Amino acid sequence: MRRYDAQALWQKDKDHFIHPFTDFSLFHDKGCDLITDSDGIYVQDAHGNRFIDGIAGLWCVNVGHGRAEIGQAMAKQATRMAYFSTFNNLSNAPAAELAAKLAELAPAHLNHVFYSCGGSAANDATIRLVHYYFNRLGKPSKKRILSRNNAYHGTTYLAATLTGIESNNWDFDTLDHLVTHLSEANLYRRPKGMSEAEYCDHLVAELEETIERLGANNIAAFIAEPIMGAGGVLMAPHGYHARMQAVCRANEILYIADEVVTGFGRLGHFFASEAVFETQPDIINCAKGLSSGYAPLGATLISDAIYEVLGTPQRKGGVLSTGFTYSGHPVSCAAALKNIEIIERESLCENVREVGPYLERQLKTLSHHETVGDVRGSHFMLAIENVADKATKELLPVEARVGDRVAAEGQKRGLIIRPVGHLNIISPPLIWDRGVVGRVVAILDEAFAAATTSLRKDGYL
Q: pTM for the complete prediction?
């Protein structure tokens, strides 16, 4: 194993790498922790410290780290043919094989695949295709996209506009003339005294009122994560997605499921929309677990009905003039094919369906801690919301950095989880078993206790 000069590497990183989602109030002094090695459920930093990976890299290393057979599949493809264009009626074997495999795994009406390089690009490309679709139908006024507050759909220009997390766009420009945000579906913070069923009625009514206000002839699509991810692992009331889709269909509004996080086993199925939420989206976007992060790859799965329009030449000599240099990249597609093979062969979806409910139950035991207000999510997609007062659900002040405190205490004890403001997110590799869950929850129990002590010492509790 290669040894690194940890200090020199830290300095190079601090001096030259602009990290996504960097907190510069900390970065200029502290820099970053450098992760240099990985294996299975573990990662290791440049100093040789080993950690359980509680976030699967970033919602994506579903089959675990260090899978030699994925690396070998990529190397084999790279030495045979690393790259060639997929423009102008050219293709490659892994892209064709993967498209067919995705059509097999997806709901039956989604048989066509448009490749991109990740989740943000998939969402951007999807909206461009949706607009093109309605233009081709002779309905050019259908441009508006409905998204939701606290949704996360990426950070490219249009995807950032779709994203409804206010802080994500502080001082950034957005394309607000194209997007309208609805209320997020957040069971924990639903209006006081409202039942789950009433809350669902409330959210559906808001969609109906928005369509009436904007005009269905001006709305192209509604985009939604089955479970909202970076916005807080927010759970919708039962029946929400199916009812929202029904309203969309009644108004000729396309229903887009952003399964960048929920796809490829995180909820126990390759795709969650139909299997878990009883919806049949017109489009599903995916990335992350598609290749388990071993290579950048995104995909937009398109219905037969939409493809019939997209696949009809718009004029003599006309082409579908959108795409990317790396659309259907053969090495990335080879990685995804081997990744899917592993998920199927090792029954990882079944493992998530068996271990996931156990992980949920064990995490809920942390509710005895003073700051733990809510433990929510499903299977291997979970979050803990920290509060100052459980009865009122009041949050601690931002400067308390409660999520950071808990994550730091966990890391001291050998576990990496993700802090997002007042939240802590757990989204592990799909290979965790009950034994690992027990170790993780024991670490978290200590981490929350230590964080509570420090919060009290600093006068926040």
A: 0.96
Distances (CA, A) of 228 to 90, 102, 182, 403: 37, 23, 13, 18
Helices and strands in the chain: count of H runs, count of E runs: 15, 15
**Helix, strand, coil tally for the chain in percent (to 5):** 45, 15, 40
Answer yes or no: are the C-beta atoms of 185 and 376 closer than 8 Å. no
Interval 90-116: pLDDT, tens: 999 999 999 999 999 999 999 999 999
Helix-helix angle 348-364:330-345, to 10 degrees: 70
393 CB neighbour count, 10 Å cutoff: 14
* CA dist., res. 426 & res. 407, Å (int): 11
Query: Could you give the CA distance from residue 142 to residue 134 in angstroms, rounded to a whole number?
Result: 7
How far is the C-alpha of 353 from the C-alpha of 85, rounded, in Å? 39
Alpha-carbon distances, residue 374 vs 79, 153, 369 (angstroms): 50, 24, 11
Give the DSSP H/E element, type plus range, for residue 306: helix 304-310
At 439-449, the pLDDT tens digits run: 999 999 999 99
CA distances from 69 to 74, 75, 96, 230, 342 (A): 9, 10, 20, 30, 9
**Alpha helix segments (H runs only) across 41-156:** 56-59, 68-81, 93-105, 119-136
Q: How far is CA 98 from CA 341, 349, 408, in A?
A: 11, 19, 40
Going by their DSSP bridges, the two strands 42-45 and 50-53 should be labelled as antiparallel
Q: What is the per-residue burial (b if ≥16 Cβ within 10 Å, else e) of 83-116? A: eeebeeeeebebbeebbebbbebbbebbbbbbbb
Q: How far apart are CA 134 and CA 141, in angstroms?
A: 8
Whole-number Cα distances in Å, 346 to 58, 184, 221, 295: 22, 36, 37, 21
343 close to 380: Cβ distance less than 8 angstroms? no
Phi, psi dihedrals of residue 315, rounded to the nearest 5°: -170, 165
